[in-house]
Design goal:
244 residues, alpha+beta, 7 strands, 33% helix, DOCKER domain-containing protein, DOCK_C_lobe_C
Length: 244
């Protein structure tokens, strides 16, 4: 919105021959564009997101059986989010009535106790389709107008969540789409669509290598910062990937 406003004002000041004001507007426009295209992290810390579902017959209709993406500040992690949600709803329904579920799997309503209220919580990250990655290169682009969020689960072909043999390690990517994009007037937006993508062991290995390569490439194309570069190199120079 600021870019559009600067553009309109520059045309207006040009038509009115208010050149000093036009110069100031163009300088502000240049400064804003420099920040938007900078590979450096923004001064403003980016938020964190959680997928929260409400299950059980005792929830009010506006929550019962629904899932939401909730935006929080960077001081939040999964344990903090769980504690805050427990405190919030325990005040209204009683501590013994609240059950928090941290496994991100489908909830079967028939196994739930009628006198309990279940809250399923999982951390998610903004999801950007590969086809749109070239349009979202900066931190600003990657955290603005976001309506899809990702949760990943590693598992084996035998169904076990953790395996010693990385050659059989597969991945399930669950993508949640919200009714409206973030940032929004509310910090809680309902999930309207869920998509699951399954990666084979070789596809999982290729994705890991591609991601690490992209991280290193972005660091080499920008002014070198030691800590981010070291983080990008970890697991890349001596990568732990699937055999073969």
């Amino acid at each position: 919105m600021s870019l559009e406003l600067y553009s309109i004002l520059s045309v207006l000041y040009k038509s009115e021959r208010k050149l000093p004001k036009m110069m100031n507007i163009l300088e502000s426009n240049r400064s804003l564009l420099a920040k938007l295209t900078s590979p450096e992290p923004p001064d403003r810390l980016v938020p964190v997101y959680f997928r929260v579902g409400f299950f059980g017959k005792l929830w009010e209709e506006e929550l019962r059986g629904k899932r939401f993406i909730i935006k929080k500040g960077t001081e939040y992690n999964l344990s903090v989010m769980i504690k805050k949600m427990e405190e919030q709803f325990s005040k209204k329904y009683g501590k013994n009535s609240i059950v928090v579920l941290t496994q991100n799997k489908k909830i079967e309503e028939y196994v739930l106790e009628d006198d309990k209220l279940y809250i399923q919580i999982a951390g998610v990250v903004p999801y950007i389709k590969a086809a749109n990655a070239h349009l979202r290169l900066t931190m600003f682009d990657q955290n603005f107008n976001i309506d899809e969020f990702l949760f990943e689960t590693a598992f084996s072909e035998e169904g076990k969540p953790v395996v010693d043999d990385l050659g059989s390690l597969m991945k399930k990517k669950t993508i949640y789409k919200t009714k409206n994009p973030f940032p929004y007037v509310e910090n809680r937006i309902e999930v309207c669509q869920t998509t699951e993508i399954f990666l084979s062991p070789i596809e999982n290995a290729i994705e890991i290598i591609t991601l690490q390569t992209s991280k290193i490439q972005s660091q080499l194309e920008s002014p070198v910062r030691i800590n981010p570069l070291q983080q990008a190199l970890q697991g890349s120079v001596v990568p732990m990937v699937n055999p073969g």
